[in-house]
Amino acid sequence: MINLSIRALSELLQQKQISIQELCGVYHDRCQSFNVNTNALISICAELSAAELLQAQQQLDAGELLAGVPLVHKDLFCTQGIKTTCGSNMLADFKPPYDATAVTQLAAAGMVNLGKANMDEFAMGSSNEHSAFGVVKNPWDSQRVPGGSSGGSAAAVAARMVPVATGTDTGGSIRQPAAFCGITGIKPSYGRVSRHGMVAFASSLDQAGVLAVSADDCGLVLSQMCGHDPLDSTSLKTSTWQWDKPKDSNMQGLRVGVPHAWIDALQDEGIKNKTTEAIEYFKQQGASIIDIELPHADLAVSAYYVLAPAECSSNLSRFDGVRFGHQTNAAENLEALYRKSRSEGFGEEVKKRIMIGAWALSAGYYDAYYLKAQKVRRLISEDFNKAFESVDVIASPVSPELPFKLGEKADGVSMYEADKFTIPASLAGLPCLSMPIGFTAGLPVGLQLIGRYFDEQNILALADKYQLDHDHHMQIPEAFL
Amino acid sequence: MSIWDRWEMVIGLEIHVRLATNSKLFSGMKASYGASPNSQVSFLDAGLPGTLPVINQKALEYAIRFGLAVDAEIPPVTVFARKNYFYPDLPKGYQISQMDDPIVGKGHIVIKTDEGEKTVEITRAHLEEDAGKSIHDKYDRYSAIDLNRAGTPLIEVVSEPQMSNAKEAVAYMREIYTRVTHLGICDGNLQEGSFRCDANVSVRPKGQKELGTRAEIKNLNSFRFIEKAINHEAKRQIKLLEAGEKIIQETRLYDADKDQTRSMRSKENANDYRYFPDPDQLPIAITDAMIEAQREHLPEFPEQKIQRYINVLKVKADDAAIIANDIQMAAFFEAADAQSKADADLNAKFLLGEFSALLNAKGESITTSKIDVVSYAGLLDVVAAGGISRKVAKTVLEDMWDSGEAAAAIIKAKGLGQISDSSALNELINQVIADNPSQVADYRAGNEKMFNYFIGQIMKKTKGQANPVQTKQLLEELLNE
User: Fold this and answer.
1) Ordered domains of chain A (ranges, CATH)
2) Is there a contact between A323 and B91 if contact means CB atoms under 8 Å apart?
3) A203 is catalytic
4) Radius of gyration over alpha carbons of chain A, in Å?
């Protein structure tokens, strides 16, 4: 049962072969027993909420497909009365007085929250090693990282502790851990899902998304999260969307763009082979493969590591120890209250990025860094616009490397470089996903699909067609069977 | 020789106008003044993580309306920016303000100076949220924070440095005050800080083109203090310069009790606010339709009113100016004019004379008057039709105040109406003639002074209620028969 699709689980529930309590109970048990090995969750709900179960039953009776399906939320989605730590000591005991819009929407459909997923502190990191609540271990190899920042969400789905988890993606934080953990993950277009109640890292880039076993599951859950939210000025009026699952795997007429320069530059032969095989499959199914260029993509990492820290340096100013969050008990004056509360509350990576960002915005450097990075961002968007004149979908690697060993990357910059394939689409605000395309050296490999703005349908449809003929996404690490 | 023969002042003002919207600039929370501390604070106002700003359309409209009232350009796109600094009454760690694309561009107003009319250019006006309030003197070991004011909407109106003495600065400030209060976008309450100003003051030797180093005097909220503060500051600077010292660019505070300014912080210690566009909000398009809709709300300003009162309503120039410059009095005057058949000139005289005297005596204002405009207009009609004299009207007015009755009812009940019935007057006059044969003979013999004797007799009999014009006319007729 733990490897069933959402549609199959829903059918079991509808036919009363299993109750919501039983289904959620199975996953709740798995959360508790497997969290010891993975550390994927920061909190596990002690018991299922009666109100959520009642809502789930009502929605199930009304025919809602997602009703009764359990999930966990990345621990930066505010959940009323439930600890929302953002993986930080700063918010170790923070219980928000309200629910994020995405949380509310999924609860309204009858999904049942089992807990909160571990993450890199304030979503800053690509390995989940920067969590105040300990590293998450990759279910495929406990010596290796699950990716980040939504590493807890990805590991929880890979270990089938839940069938689906929410995540957020700023520069690759859904796609890279999905690839590292052998599952499917989608970051929708910027403006598709409300950011209200999502603790901000970099506001102009952050998007909520879904990590699940299959593209179909991702599409079903994402449809429920979409829609305009009057509480978020960047959520678009036209953001309602409904996933339409394709009937077969025919790809006739589809134009798939491939930035061959990216693939040629891959050092890892295993990743290169798997990527080439997947693209070859698209061709066999009738898609035309078109070589594309994204001339400014090389600048993406540099631009991103100016813009995202700049925004985070400001977004994280509210954590000052005055009203909520960690407050030092050794402040002799106001400045010391700020300095000590923040020094004690934030981890190293967060401090580093706040400093980079504050510097990039400071007088005398703003034009050279922040404004220049904004220009690069526009150029990258234009590269994509140009590419999408001749292709419908872009396929590329997700990460230039396989899941690396815990503690292997002490150097921050080499960690940042690993985001080079995911960052360009983030800067352009485009929908993109990662899907499993096989294993090399016993570790999963992902393929990134990037769509036109607001065209989640085409990338999910392509992934779904691929998954009709492949079962890489159905693989479960032996320890979690 | 006065110092002003050698030196001249250069003054620029930044005026903060609190917009009279019902709710705050971004949170939808009520924005009324004087509520109990921290009773008007939303999650956003408290800076809770995950909350997002959504612009108050009314505030945008008010700002546009202000722009139109000072003949300013309204740019097609406006952008909010973050001003970053730490202070406990600034919950987010940044203030949402505007930098590069303010809602109101270049404009100007005309002020009256001793040398005649002068145009003062307005550099810009931008929207921003106010901070909360820090209270340092209420508790022994603690400072208290009241966030009711946090997030209330302001426009900051920045002038060019074009005022050359304190009187001009006050005239400019008054003119802006008149505009915003007549526009209905500000309640104009100086004590509550609804209208306050920072003055940039510098001095230079007369005839020099180059500007001197300026000091900024913060938070002036009275027309009297601003004049004194500017004069004091200019003299302080001149004294320093004449002693061969230099002016330091700094922020100063004016102490009204001591009539002096003191340094708050120098430029070296000034914050680097690290302004950048607020990534939580998209640029806002200001359409022609939005601008035209606000143009319809533009009121008649005092200068226009005065001209209309004089030329159309035939009110005396002095009276017109007094009424037009008082927004409440002008509204009352115009409403009474619409209600009553009396000449506007009588309305103006009575309003500034008898009615204002009564308000003064009662210690009330026109907005708290117990006599409403309808009752007032009713009394005017009786006076205009000759029903009572203005002298009697004064006592009727007092009765109206005390009893709340209408003028006509009081006049009838107390028998105060003038006798204008010609047959009744005829009878009365004939009686007086019959009673005074010798005086009649005297008059008819040529002693015209006796005429007033008969008038006196008639007024005595009628207790002053005989219509004087009619009485005079009838008496002449009957005596000369």
Assistant:
1) 1-481 (3.90.1300.10)
2) yes
3) no
4) 21
